Amino acid sequence: MAKSQQTYNKTEKEKQRRKKREEKAKRKEARRAEAKEKGGGIPLAYVDFNGNLVDTPPDPSLKVKIDAEDIVLGIPKKEESDEDKFNPIRNGKVSFFDHSKGFGFIIDSENNEKYFCHVSGLIDEIEENNTVQFELEKGARGMNAVRVKKI
């Protein structure tokens, strides 16, 4: 005759599991009864058109229809302005130029942006505070001033 595989320890663990399940079911029933007494359930929150949480649903007549194709994901490419297309030659002032190192910076007179200028992009010799004409070209770190002429 074979011995039972059920040991004392296994039966005790099974009793503990059963007891935990029963306690959990009792707590669940108590929560349900409490929610019915309070007349509740889960309260709903809505988001109004300004992004604030409110307890009243929004008016469906004010809903705005948006097409999925109109949504732009990411950063849109910068379009050139009209003046950039028609007049590639810009005017500016040399704010800094180091002849020993061969580079400097030019401040655009229209938008006060500072552009890098290398000695290889010069047509005339320039010094600090000179007024110059230049064109912009995309470089490794941004826009560079090229074909720089002294005015």
TrEMBL record:
<dbReference type="InterPro" id="IPR002059">
    <property type="entry name" value="CSP_DNA-bd"/>
</dbReference>
<dbReference type="GO" id="GO:0005829">
    <property type="term" value="C:cytosol"/>
</dbReference>
<dbReference type="InterPro" id="IPR011129">
    <property type="entry name" value="CSD"/>
</dbReference>
<feature type="domain" description="CSD">
    <location>
        <begin position="89"/>
        <end position="150"/>
    </location>
</feature>
<protein>
    <submittedName>
        <fullName>Cold shock domain-containing protein</fullName>
    </submittedName>
</protein>
<feature type="region of interest" description="Disordered">
    <location>
        <begin position="1"/>
        <end position="37"/>
    </location>
</feature>
<dbReference type="GO" id="GO:0003676">
    <property type="term" value="F:nucleic acid binding"/>
</dbReference>
<dbReference type="InterPro" id="IPR012340">
    <property type="entry name" value="NA-bd_OB-fold"/>
</dbReference>
<feature type="compositionally biased region" description="Basic and acidic residues">
    <location>
        <begin position="22"/>
        <end position="37"/>
    </location>
</feature>
<dbReference type="Pfam" id="PF00313">
    <property type="entry name" value="CSD"/>
</dbReference>
